[in-house]
Design goal:
alpha/beta; Rossmann fold; binds guanosine-5'-triphosphate; binds magnesium ion
Length: 457
């Protein structure tokens, strides 16, 4: 697309009202500096949103500092309405004005150069006449414009703001950059595309691209999980030793290495997940999102994977409890009776619980000596735990606004509810794949079995 046909929006307003936050959210860029200090943004900065067939530019600007004086200066030029845009251009190019009103020159320049106006106000503070000078100055540009009410702390004064803003702007929308999910962002972009007919086609293409990109992000996430759960279920640590006694001695070490590798592998995929969704400040974000407990905090597995009742169902659905696959020695027939009677706690933990994770095996080597191996994972709930943790993180990361610096809380039983709400046949496919994983058999189509867990029900 030709650059001069590309939509450009200057995000302007009072200092500290969330202008940079809006730019960060819409550009999906967490590098934009946001701070509670008023006057954080000092220079106008263009951020390009580039997509396959479209794109647009957002310009973050400093807030108005002396709008009343600037308006007075403009009026002193004695222009009629048809000359006002020219007077504004004169203002941004006047060296004295640049010295006296550096913030206004910075914020008005992109508008003089053709950007549309996004005027940002805070809906949690009352409207006041002091904003009128700002809106009046903006109006001198004659550029397409709309107002965004950001309810920073509350929605208390939104109505009051609407009444005032509608006298200056044809379009007024409430937009909270911290909470706006992807759908809300798309809705706002659609409004942008009406502001200037020249930009409509380009912005519509941009919207189509962004929707497509969102689908790809989901596909990449599912592929990422599929590789993660396979790797974690297959992993084993091994070490050559001379005697079986030595093998027994290094068991704790192997177990430690095993757990370390598993934790690191999971962490790596969380970072990749963040990168898929454009969150590159991964250290900052891991501090802020609601991370699941340690992977080997096995007491938590019934919360993060399937609960006991669901596990029994899974084992039934895959035939594991009925046929040869049933690990009779561990489960015992009394377990099934207990399970079906609802008394799931006692005996079941032997089969599903923390005391059955991974074992060590010692094998003689043809060349002499032995190989001690720790792993792979035996616990039936484990693949679900990995999936549940990932789904939980995905929900937070994919919905997370790039301006947000806070945790997004999600119901801990979300994964179990998701599994429960799947069609029975879809559930069975998932259970069969997990059964294959834990039995070290090749999966059939793991990504297809995982996909329904990511789709809205
Ligand atoms: N809770 C909440 N805080 C917000 C919201 N929007 C902005 N903030 C906070 O308000 C402060 C100012 O946000 P910025 O985006 O830096 O504001 P700005 O208008 O760019 O500020 P200047 O560059 O200083 O003019 C930051 O501490 C943000 O975290 C919101 O919707 N909800
Ligand atoms: Mg700013």
């Amino acid at each position: 697309m030709r650059a001069n046909n590309q939509a450009r929006f200057a995000v302007v307003g009072h200092p500290n009202k969330g202008k940079s936050s809006i730019v960060s959210t819409l550009s999906q860029n967490d590098d934009v500096v946001i701070s509670s200090r008023s006057g954080t943004t000092e220079k106008a900065e263009g951020i390009s949103i580039t997509t396959a067939n479209g794109g647009y530019q957002l310009i973050d600007t400093p807030g108005f500092q002396r709008p009343v004086k600037v308006l007075r200066w403009l009026k002193e030029q004695g222009a009629n309405a048809s000359e006002r845009a020219k007077v504004l251009a004169k203002f941004v190019n006047d060296s004295q004005c640049r010295q006296q009103y550096p913030d206004e020159v910075e914020l008005l320049r992109p508008i003089v150069e053709g950007a549309a106006i996004l005027y940002v106000v805070d809906g949690s503070h009352p409207y006041g006449a002091e904003y009128e000078a700002e809106m009046e100055v903006l109006r001198w540009s004659g550029q397409p414009s709309m107002a965004l009410i950001n309810p920073i702390e509350s929605v208390e004064y939104i109505k009051e703001w609407e009444n005032a803003l509608l006298q200056y702007f044809k379009s007024v929308q409430v937009f909270n950059p911290m909470k706006a999910d992807f759908e809300k962002q798309i809705t706002l972009l659609k409004t942008f595309s009406y502001l200037n007919p020249v930009w409509t086609e380009g912005l519509d293409k941009t919207i189509a691209d962004l929707l497509q990109q969102r689908k790809q992000q989901l596909n990449q996430s599912i592929a990422l999980l599929s590789r993660l759960v396979e790797d974690l279920c297959q992993h084993r640590e091994s070490q050559k030793v001379l005697t079986t006694q030595q093998a027994q001695k290094i068991k704790p070490l192997l177990e430690k290495q095993y757990q370390h590798w598993m934790r690191e592998r999971e962490l790596q995929s969380v970072k990749e997940l963040m990168a898929i969704y454009g969150h590159f400040q991964s250290d900052v974000i891991t501090d802020q999102i609601d991370l699941p407990p340690d992977l080997f905090d096995c007491d938590q597995w019934f919360a993060w994977g399937l609960d006991k009742r669901q596990l029994v169902y899974a084992a039934t659905a895959t035939g594991a409890l009925g046929g040869a696959a049933l690990d009779v020695a561990v489960a015992g027939s009394s377990f099934m009776l207990g399970a079906l009677g609802g008394g799931l706690i006692g005996a079941s933990s032997a089969w599903f619980g923390a005391d059955k994770l991974a074992d060590m095996s010692v094998q003689g080597l043809p060349v002499g000596g032995y190989e001690a191996r720790f792993g792979p994972m035996k616990n039936r709930n484990f693949p679900y735990v990995v999936i549940g943790r990932f789904v939980h993180l995905h929900a937070q990361i994919s919905q997370r606004s790039h301006a947000s610096r806070e945790a997004l809380s999600i119901d801990a039983n979300d994964f179990q509810q998701r599994v429960q709400s799947l069609e029975k046949s879809t559930q069975r496919e998932l259970h069969q794949e997990c059964e294959r994983l834990i039995k070290q058999r090749p999966t059939d189509d793991l990504e297809s079995a995982l996909r329904p867990l990511f789709e809205k029900n």
